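in:
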């Protein structure tokens, strides 16, 4: 494994001869690293379940505590994306995995009653580094796969990473059920060797692509592109919901429905697990039918699920709440996959316009690959801010109304706006630039 100088995934002969095997090898080890990164990013969503009254932190303080990683994670996604261009995908995967040791060891040092709230906030902010892993991983994998397989590959990469959220919640459930809520460091003891394993596997089995080096100028091009910001809004609605709900689910169950740490931990993993597993399906459906079509229908379903959860919150009906909330996770996961498929789809369509205007196919394709990689970082960064907004909305909702119902009502309106935006820009009058053509069956 090492530096690959020539990479032509759109060439079907090259893809069949060596590209497919190499791309999939890098994909599997990218998933491992991103999976661990997501687990560390969501670490404080489970550590707060261990924080009883002796820690002296009220529910509003806990919601803000779990919001800190999403805030930091969103900002580090852009430099993490650029790092792939600067250092190479394999090299940066090794570094980014090793950096996860910092928040994990720091949490082990401070996780006990008597630690100041400011210290907890600082250590929680450090776990935002795990959120950056997603952007660099997706940028790297985007360069390995041809357009006809990007939806599935990116969905699988992201879904394997997303599933790190329910996995760490299951680890916490096991710790609480076996040792009780007084031993949070056991969760950290599980992840320290996994971090080392992820870094080691990336060093041994992944590759740097020379074609991704020196692409930092693509960021300037991307931030001037209108579709970058339109797609970022859609990604706030899908991924922002997934990560925000994942971090807040246990706290909502404890605060609104009076669940104990063990009772909350028994339920919190279900939604993130289903949302993670279905993300590749969203990518596959987008490959087949077009990302915009799947995303539009998905936001309609999220709005309907949001209405169910709003009513359940007002009525304080836990069974109905769980059905609606799990449905939100499922549709958020599905939309994550379809929305991410739209990103390379838009820039691949622009490449076809450039070729029709006389630009060489090689130059147009190379431009689409590097610009879509940069766009993934920017859109992923903005989308992650949705997780921050969701936790702040819950914090304000419980402070003022002592219920999550106002927050869920606001989310319902947001999903309706995202559906309208998808229809107006990408479905109602699709131009050659934004209309994604479904991949023929069997391709």
């Amino acid at each position: 494994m090492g530096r690959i100088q020539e990479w032509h995934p759109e060439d079907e002969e090259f893809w069949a001869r060596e590209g497919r095997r190499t791309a999939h090898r890098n994909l599997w080890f990218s998933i491992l690293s991103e999976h661990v990164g997501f687990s560390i990013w969501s670490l404080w969503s489970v550590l707060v379940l261990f924080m009883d009254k002796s820690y002296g932190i009220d529910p509003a303080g806990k919601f803000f505590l779990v919001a800190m990683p999403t805030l930091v994670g969103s900002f580090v996604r852009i430099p993490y994306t650029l790092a792939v261009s600067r250092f190479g995908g394999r090299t940066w995967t090794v570094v980014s995995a090793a950096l996860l040791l910092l928040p994990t060891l720091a949490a082990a040092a401070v996780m006990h009653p008597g630690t100041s709230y400011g210290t907890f906030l600082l250590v929680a902010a450090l776990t935002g580094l795990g959120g950056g892993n997603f952007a660099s991983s997706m940028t790297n994998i985007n360069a390995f796969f041809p357009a006809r397989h990007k939806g599935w590959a990116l969905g699988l990469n992201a879904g394997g990473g997303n599933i790190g959220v329910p996995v760490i919640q299951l680890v916490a459930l096991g710790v609480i059920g076996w040792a009780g809520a007084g031993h949070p460091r056991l969760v950290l003891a599980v992840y320290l060797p996994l971090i080392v394993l992820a870094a080691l596997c990336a060093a041994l089995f992944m590759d740097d692509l020379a074609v991704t080096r020196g692409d930092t100028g693509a960021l300037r091009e991307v931030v001037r592109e209108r579709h970058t910001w339109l797609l970022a809004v859609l990604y706030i609605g899908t991924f922002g919901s997934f990560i925000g709900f994942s971090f807040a689910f246990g706290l909502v169950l404890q605060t609104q429905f009076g669940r104990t740490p063990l009772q909350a931990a028994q339920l919190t993993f279900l939604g993130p697990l289903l949302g993670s597993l279905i993300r590749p399906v969203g990518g596959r459906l987008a490959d087949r039918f077009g990302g915009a079509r799947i995303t539009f229908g998905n936001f309609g379903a999220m709005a309907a699920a949001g209405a169910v959860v709003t009513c359940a919150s007002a009525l304080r009906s836990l069974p109905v709440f769980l059905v609606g909330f799990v449905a939100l996770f499922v549709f958020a996961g599905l939309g994550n996959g379809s929305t991410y498929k739209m990103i390379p789809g838009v820039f691949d369509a622009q490449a076809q316009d450039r070729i029709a205007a006389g630009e060489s196919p090689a130059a147009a394709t190379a431009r689409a690959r590097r610009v879509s990689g940069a766009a993934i970082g920017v859109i992923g960064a903005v989308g992650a801010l949705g997780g921050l907004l969701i936790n702040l909305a819950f914090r304000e909702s419980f402070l003022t109304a002592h219920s999550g119902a106002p927050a869920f009502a606001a989310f319902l309106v947001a999903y309706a706006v995202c559906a309208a935006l998808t229809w107006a820009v990408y479905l109602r009058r699709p131009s050659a630039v934004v209309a994604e053509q479904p991949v023929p069956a069997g391709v």
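note: The chain has one domain: 3-427.
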